[in-house]
Amino acid sequence: MCGIAGYIGQRNAVEVAVDQLRRLEYRGYDSAGVAVQVGSEIEIVKKAGTIRFLTEELASNPKDGRCAIGHSRWATHGGPTDANAHPHFDQDQHIALIHNGIIENYAELKDEMIARGHTFRSQTDSEVAAYVIGDEYRHGGTLLDAVRRAVRRFRGAYALVVVSDSEPETIVAARNASPLIIGFGEGENLLASDIPALLPYTRSVMALEEGHLAEITRDTVKIIDGDGHHVPLAPQHIDWDIAAAERGGYDHFMLKEIHEQPEVIRACLAGRIDGKGGVRLEGVFSDNVWNEIDRVNIIACGTAYHAGLMGKHLFEKLLRLPTDVYYSSEFRYGDPVLSPRSLAIFVSQSGETADTLAALRLCKSRRIRTLGIVNVVGSSIARECDRTIATQAGPEISVASTKAYTAQVIVLSLLALHIAQVQETPGLRVADWLSELQLLPGHAAKVLEVEESVKALAEQLKDMPLCFFLGRGADAYVGYEGALKLKEIAYIPTQESPAGEMKHGPLALIQAGVVSLFGATDPATTDKVVSNIKEVQARSGTVLAVTSDTTGAIKKAADLVIEFAPTKFDFLNALLSVIPMQLLAYYVAKLNGCSIDQPRNLAKSVTVE
Ligand code: M6R
Q: Which of 7, 9, 75, 257 could form a disulfide with 377 if both were Cys (CB 3.0 to 4.6 A apart)?
């Protein structure tokens, strides 16, 4: 999710690398740096903060060379500081490395290095990767050989770019699950994590494939697979404009972010499942704290509040741990009753939402334990909570939150499983849950295949005057999020509630033309949902079901249906059902000509009350 830049050729390589980083700024970042080959040395300049801090540093300490790599960081391991910024040197300061992704087994590798007497300058997993490559380089061969051997020791996702002081004008790169694109120029070659950073220099590009490595000089590009076999070069011509390239070719950031969800689930799980069927959540409270907690309060706004509802569902169902969910704005003025043994969890994508921050400060003043679930690592909420778990969803640009929601629910699930592991909750199969979670990226990718049918449904439903979002249990909670998407970007009025509540009032609004979207993923409530569907149809309402039901009962009852294959756990099916709802909101908004990434009256980060 961070930005990678690399240049080798006749120009001032530092200037090019910094320019490339600027072109990746739209992705968001918290620090930036460059490494440049100057004579027989590598020099690194890096600063926390925006690229302006880096360029000011470079202005007072200019660097000139023909080969440079650059990085803009989105913190995952270790806060946004100068020391944690990339590039990182290896232990001998002969190699400089930049890295996107997460090395899941970095803790083991770091222990191994420490045991051999090495000391580290940062808290990052990336510096550990630099040391492992340094270690391999000492055993001989080229930098490419060393990287190829080193990556066999890494578990996780990475796009790695390295330079060595003993191989001038050579950049080596490796990729596994994090994007890396090579740009082919005349007497110059480039590298970047994303196409927009290459377009001012070349339109001839090639994505490095999974498990492949590249060795780049100003006149040559050599690509090999993990076994060292040569891979033929197959550059493609890109004719997108720069704005389209920033969106990865998608029409809007929202659609790009919806499609990123399989990858986001993977990133969110990375490093958090050990090889023995257990959860490993770094930096959370010690085990005795989890045994002491008698109640959980989840406090958040908007989409994050909806993720909190999913957390409540799981905490109560799996752990029998009483959990309340509050809107931050209500909590802070509501004089809440707080047990001294309770835990307050603050969920926020931005980490800067004013009401959530104020609620956090209230809890701290009452000496309640606080835990943040936050996407922006260096944000106020992340810093002020006693403990924070990063959602690792990467920068979210669209105002309408999509991938952050999914990541928040995944973190809450991991947390529930962590508590279950500590408390040894009887009957709860943590290992089963974890193996199903590991399959979830694949399931999410399958659910995304409904896109074409959702598009057709959007065409049919785009003029609906009102849309109900109904369901039971977790399906009702996901419905709240689906409804928020439809109203915030497509401006369609919605009415969301548990399906059983319809006959207590909202049913009066049903008439011809009104659509009711039923989330129907829980086999335990299928019969009840079918009855609710009939109630709507009896009043001439149209029913659209989003379902993983395999009995055929929901499909038979509904007028329109979006189906997807179930996972082993109903809760995860409910979570997956948000994807068709996000897509429906997107396509209805698009067909109605709405401003999708920046809907009217709304801001991405609500830093005022
Ligand atoms: O940054 P946060 O997660 O704290 O933001 C909370 C809400 O403002 C946010 O989720 C908002 O509801 C989104 N626009 C929903 O798509």
A: 75
Q: Where are the alpha helices (DSSP H) in 33-142?
A: 51-60, 106-115, 125-138
Ligand 1 contacts CB of residue 87 (under 6 A): no
Q: How far is CA 87 from its chain centroid?
A: 22
How many other C-beta atoms can be found within 10 angstroms of the C-beta atom of residue 352?
18
Q: For position 491, what pLDDT does the model report?
A: 97
Banded pLDDT at 378 (limits 50, 70, 90)? confident
Residue spans of the domains in the chain: they are 3-245, 256-428, 449-591
3-state secondary structure of 45: strand
- The better pLDDT of the pair 317, 74 is held by 317
256-428 CATH: 3.40.50.10490
Supply the CATH classification number for the domain 449-591.
3.40.50.10490
Candidates 2, 268, 301, 363; catalytic one:
2
Look at the block and give the residue holding tokens 């928040």.
408
Instruction: With cut-offs at 50, 70 and 90, classify the pLDDT of residue 609.
Output: low
Q: Could you tell me if 79 and 119 are in contact, meaning their C-beta atoms sit under 8 angstroms apart?
A: no
For residue 8, report the distance from its CA to the centre of ligand 1, in Å: 41
Bridge-partner residues for 215, per DSSP? Answer: 172, 222
Ligand 1: residue whose CA is nearest its atom 9: 302
Q: Does the beta carbon of 372 lie inside 6 Å of ligand 1? A: no
Tell which one of 350, 411, 412 to mutate to probe ligand 1, the residue whose CB is within 8 A of the most ligand atoms. 350
Q: Is the CB of 358 under 6 A from ligand 1?
A: no
Whether 3-245 shares its CATH topology with 256-428 is answered no
Report helix, strand or coil for 162. strand
Catalytic residue list contains 268:
no
Cα 72 to averaged position of ligand 1 atoms, centre (Å) = 25
For ligand 1, atom 8, the nearest C-alpha belongs to: 302
Confidence of residue 605 (pLDDT cuts 50, 70, 90): confident
Q: Of the listed 222, 364, 555, 604, which one is catalytic? A: 604
- The residue contributing the CA closest to ligand 1 atom 14 is 400
pLDDT of residue 295: 96
Question: For residue 518, is pLDDT > 70?
Answer: yes
Instruction: Give the C-alpha separation, 82 to 48, whole Å.
Output: 5
Give the tokens for residue 161: 């770019």
Give the CATH number of domain 3-245; options: 3.30.230.10, 1.10.150.120, 3.40.50.12780, 3.60.20.10. 3.60.20.10
C-beta of 20 in contact with ligand 1 (< 6 A): no
Residue 76 has pLDDT above 80, yes or no: no
What's the whole-model pTM score? 0.78
